[in-house]
Automatic annotation (TrEMBL):
Protein name per Swiss-Prot or TrEMBL: DUF4272 domain-containing protein
Lineage: Bacteria, Bacillati, Actinomycetota, Actinomycetes, Glycomycetales
Length: 221
């Protein structure tokens, strides 16, 4: 997939328009784009994004007490163990870690689903849809990874659209961080936890030429 060639200045102007619609002032002009040297990203291969969705879906199932042996068997059959982060392995296989931390990753799962075209918006004022489980592998049957991929044939998001969304959430996260630092209330209707987890997934999803794509647990915000 070719590198996006959108004008970075136009991209930031769209971000400013989106923030303005929320009643949030524009960030300072010197705030850089979230892309090294102004380069815009490409997306990871769809298979990697699908694997990430499957893993986060299992993580959510473990939050709600899916037996660990069933969770690990499903991941093994799906051939996605290579995509697991070490801390995810510990939580899924042994229950190690803060359950609340993994529950919060529901918004990351929602964002990955958006990347796959399964959900139609990433409005920061609207949390994850209750219909999301119906769009993901049905672990009650259980539905296999392959069957789910055959069932969901939606097109992956255009890289230019993802670049715009990443810059929007990057700036929105910056606004939330400034509010926390100054002790001021967050912008009305904005959930900083939702913003942070959506940005995490967007940062993970993009790659650049001649750079090693980071693993899920290596994303730095």
């Amino acid at each position: 997939m070719p590198t996006v060639t959108s004008d970075p200045r136009t991209l930031r102007m769209r971000t400013v328009d989106g923030l303005g619609a929320l009643g949030i002032p524009a960030p300072p002009a010197q705030l850089p784009l979230p892309f090294p040297e102004g380069r815009l990203p490409r997306l990871r291969p769809r298979g990697h994004v699908e694997a990430r969705a499957a893993i986060l879906n299992i993580v959510q199932a473990r939050v709600f007490d899916m037996p660990e042996e069933l969770a690990m068997r499903w991941l093994l059959d799906a051939h996605v163990l290579d995509h697991l982060a070490p801390d995810e392995w510990g939580f899924i296989a042994c229950g190690r870690g803060d359950r609340g931390r993994y529950a919060d990753q529901l918004e990351s799962l929602y964002t990955v689903s958006w990347l796959l075209g399964l959900v139609d918006h990433l409005d920061p004022g609207v949390p994850c849809s209750e219909e999301l489980p119906e769009l993901l592998p049905d672990l009650r049957r259980p539905e296999s990874f392959g069957s789910w991929r055959d069932r969901q044939l939606t097109p992956t998001r255009d890289p230019g659209v993802v670049a715009e969304m990443l810059d929007f959430y990057y700036c929105l996260d910056w606004v939330c961080d400034q509010s926390r630092r100054s002790g001021q209330p967050l912008p009305r209707g904005v959930d900083d936890n939702l913003v942070w987890h959506r940005r995490w997934a967007l940062e993970w999803a993009v790659v650049f030429d001649n750079e090693r794509p980071v693993h899920w647990d290596e994303v730095r915000l």
